[in-house]
Every structure is written in C-alpha cells, then in structure tokens.
C-alpha cells in the first residue's frame, strides 16, 4: 500500500481502538470456551474487530495481483430482552496491479458493505441460531477501478447450529444496484457462505468454508474454498485471535483470480 493508505489504516485502527477501549475497561470476561464459540458464530453478541488480509494472483489476462485488508467491526445492539441487532461492516483497503489487463496500479478504499441482522437472543428449540435483515453496498471507492460506482441494497440472512465443539451453518445475501453512476454496470449478485468449524479444548479452531458469488448479469460463478486454523489467546487479560487460511479458486471468470491465495486474520475482542 502507498503512504497515504498506510496513514489511513493507522488512523482507522487508532480510532477503533480508542472507541472500543471504553467497553474493554468495563467488560466482564466470558470464558475462553464461550469466546471461541462466539467467534465461530457470525451473529454472536460480541464486540469484535477482525482485520482480514487477503492476497490473490493470476487475475485476468495480464495475470495481475490484488491484496485486500478488510476491517470488519462487529457490534451488537440490544433491542429488548428477546432480540438483538448485529451490525457487521466490511471496509476494504485495496492495493492491486493489472487486474483489468495492463491497467497499472491502484490503491485506496473499496466499496463498503454494511449488514444488519435482527436475531433472537436464544436459539430455537431445535438449537438453531438465526438472523435476517438488510445489506447495503455503499460506493465509497476512492478510485473507479476499486469499486462498482453503484449503491446496492438487498436481504441478508444467516442460520447456524452449535453443538459441542462443532459449528456449521450458512450466511447469504443478495444485492441489487439501486442507484449510482448510470455508466457503470448494474449489480445483481448472490453471495453464499456455508461454513464448518471445530474447536479443540486448547481453543484452536479448524475451519473450512466457501465464499461463493453468482453474478446474475454475467451468469458466472466465483467459488473460492478457504481452509485454515485460528487460535484464541490472551495478552494479559485482553483476548484476541489470530489465524491463517489457504484459499483455492475452484471456479472464477476469466477476469477473476485463479489458483491459490492466502488469508491472515487478527481479531480484537471486547467481551461484555
């Protein structure tokens, strides 16, 4: 990333830490086992800030490459004694080279995705945890090549079961463009993320998922499979998690990435 992006990253991280430190100071710590299970649940009532670094290559005709640092704060709001609203935000910081032919280098902020899940506090009688709500695509890209230049809107939902040390479920959304640059292509995109994880007594989590996207306009799939490991630990009394994943693209359009990719994740936790 260039110098301006590095400054932006530092500013964003510093601001997040300053705000969330207030909650950390008065937090009542969950047990390590509870924290590990909450981390495996995308709509757990847990304040967290994952920093997810992704790198992919062999993109398009010029064999370009791309790195994305997703800053993904998760914040639960209590509606009443029975329901929560879980806010999940994805802010991508992108650096790429020749991803659209010989298009040169670009770096900056991509489009922000904001999801809100309305979720019951307790699982169903069958043990299912679920949440539904809206998802918004916000055209915040600082360069044309880093985003879609379109506003987007649609539904999102997640359903999962946690039994013992195992978590499995699926997260999905559908986004349609609802405004923006009339010269940019319209959006109709379905995202599907089935996931499975196993937590050991040492709070090591083994996981596998896909993050498949179907573009209804081009009728093309993008299907990466991620497999990896996360480890929960504490520095003093502060819990955090680190992880690494290996990714392989089972299917991708000619303009997309191919072959192998990597993901590294560092998550700050602020349990109540």
Summarize the structure in words:
The chain has a 15-stranded antiparallel sheet that branches. With 272 residues, it is mainly beta. It is globular. Helices cover 11% and strands 58% of the residues. The longest helix is centred in the first third of the chain and has 23 residues, at 3-25. The chain has helices spanning 3-25, 32-39; strands at residues 47-59, 64-71, 74-78, 83-97, 105-109, 112-120, 128-138, 150-163, 166-180, 188-199, 204-210, 212-215, 220-235, 238-251, 260-270. β6 and β7 (128-138) form a beta hairpin. Mean pLDDT is 91; it is low at 22-29. It is built from 2 helices and 15 strands. The chain has one domain (3-270): Porin, CATH 2.40.160.40.
- Give the structural class: mainly beta
Count of distinct strands: 15
Element pattern in H and E: HHEEEEEEEEEEEEEEE
> What is the overall pLDDT average?
91
At the fold tier of CATH, the topology name is: Porin
Under CATH, the homologous superfamily reads monomeric porin ompg
- CATH-defined architecture: Beta Barrel
List strands and helices in order, with pairings:
Elements: H1 3-25, H2 32-39, E1 47-59, E2 64-71, E3 74-78, E4 83-97, E5 105-109, E6 112-120, E7 128-138, E8 150-163, E9 166-180, E10 188-199, E11 204-210, E12 212-215, E13 220-235, E14 238-251, E15 260-270
Antiparallel strand pairs: 1-2, 1-15, 2-4, 3-4, 4-5, 4-6, 6-7, 7-8, 8-9, 9-10, 10-11, 10-12, 11-13, 12-13, 13-14, 14-15
């Amino acid at each position: 990333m260039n110098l301006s992006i590095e400054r932006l990253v530092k500013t964003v991280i510093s601001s997040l830490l300053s705000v969330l430190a207030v909650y950390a100071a008065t937090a009542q710590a969950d047990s390590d086992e509870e924290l590990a299970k909450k981390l495996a649940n995308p709509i757990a009532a847990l304040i967290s800030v994952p920093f997810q670094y992704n790198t992919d290559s062999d993109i398009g005709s010029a064999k370009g490459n791309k790195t994305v640092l997703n800053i993904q704060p998760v914040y639960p709001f209590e509606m009443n004694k029975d329901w929560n609203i879980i806010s999940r935000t994805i802010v991508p910081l992108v650096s790429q080279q020749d991803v659209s032919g010989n298009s040169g280098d670009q770096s900056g902020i991509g489009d922000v995705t904001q999801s809100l899940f309305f979720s019951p506090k307790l699982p169903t009688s069958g043990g299912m945890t679920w949440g539904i709500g809206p998802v918004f695509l916000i055209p915040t890209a600082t360069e044309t090549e880093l985003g879609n230049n379109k506003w987007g809107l649609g539904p999102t939902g997640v359903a999962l079961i946690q039994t013992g040390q195992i978590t499995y479920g699926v997260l999905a959304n559908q986004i349609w463009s609802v405004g923006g640059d009339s010269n940019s292509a319209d959006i109709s995109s379905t995202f599907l993320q089935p996931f499975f994880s196993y937590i050991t007594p040492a709070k090591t989590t083994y996981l596998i998922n896909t993050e498949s996207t179907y573009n209804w306009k081009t009728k093309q799939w993008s299907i990466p499979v991620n497999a990896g490991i996360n480890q929960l630990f504490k520095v003093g009394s502060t819990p955090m998690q680190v992880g690494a994943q290996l990714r392989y693209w089972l299917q991708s359009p000619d303009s997309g990435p191919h072959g192998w990719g990597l993901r590294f994740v560092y998550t700050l936790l602020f349990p109540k």
